[in-house]
Specification:
Helix content: over 70%
Low-confidence stretches: 196-200
Strand order of the largest sheet: 1-2
Shape: globular
Structural class: mainly alpha
Number of strands: 2
Mean pLDDT: 90
Strand content: under 5%
Number of helices: 7
Largest sheet: 2 strands, antiparallel
Length: about 200
């Protein structure tokens, strides 16, 4: 029984450490365009997905956003959107990486994850985030479009906002996360994979 508990306990400890790191990174966000801010809080979940699979990766994303709820400025709407978009990335990337654990496989997995984040980001914003902001926070479509126009004059409708701002932002975020994961994963891999009692 202790042999089974050892690896499980180590997996839980890795998830706990990566979740804490994700929570900390969530506090470091930078304004990019309109009302979108860039952060790298999904990075620990990507590393977890590559090392441990999609389940721990999704769990870290969920823990990060639940921990952020007490200080949210979006009535939980932004956290829900981040959960969906981040899970789209980490689930896609980790599942694909399991099929091909090579450098080329990792690049393909992260490219697919970025594409999934971009598509899901557009869908989540258009069908969930913006209607929720209108209903909960009283923002009108005109006000939201106006915020987009301050960054891009071509934004004259909600679909245009998705095309010219939301999609490029999520593409940028996915690319930044992929670059950071590419630089860190091999360095962190020994810590993420090895555990006491594991045979070489």
């Amino acid at each position: 029984m202790s042999r089974k508990a050892g690896p499980l306990a180590f997996t839980l400890s890795r998830c706990g450490i990566l979740s804490a790191l994700s929570v900390l990174l969530y506090q470091l966000e930078f304004p990019v365009v309109a009302f979108y801010r860039l952060d790298l809080s999904t990075l620990p979940a990507i590393l977890a997905g590559f090392a441990m699979g999609p389940g721990p990766a999704a769990a870290i994303v969920l823990v990060k956003n639940l921990a952020h709820l007490p200080v949210t400025g979006t009535a939980g709407i932004g956290e829900l959107a981040d959960t969906l978009a981040s899970c789209a990335y980490v689930l896609t990337a980790s599942l694909l990486y399991r099929r091909s654990r090579t450098r080329r496989g990792a690049l393909a997995a992260m490219a697919a994850g970025t594409a999934a984040m971009t598509v899901s980001g557009v869908l989540v914003n258009y069908f969930l985030l913006i209607p929720a902001y209108q209903a909960v926070m009283g923002l009108t479509a005109e006000a939201i479009i106006g915020m987009g126009q301050t960054a891009c004059s071509a934004v004259n409708s909600l679909p245009a906002l998705m095309l010219y701002i939301t999609a490029p932002f999520n593409l940028l975020k996915g690319a930044a996360l992929s670059a950071a994961a590419w630089l860190l994963y091999k360095r962190a891999s020994p810590l993420l994979h090895s555990h006491p009692g594991r045979r070489a």
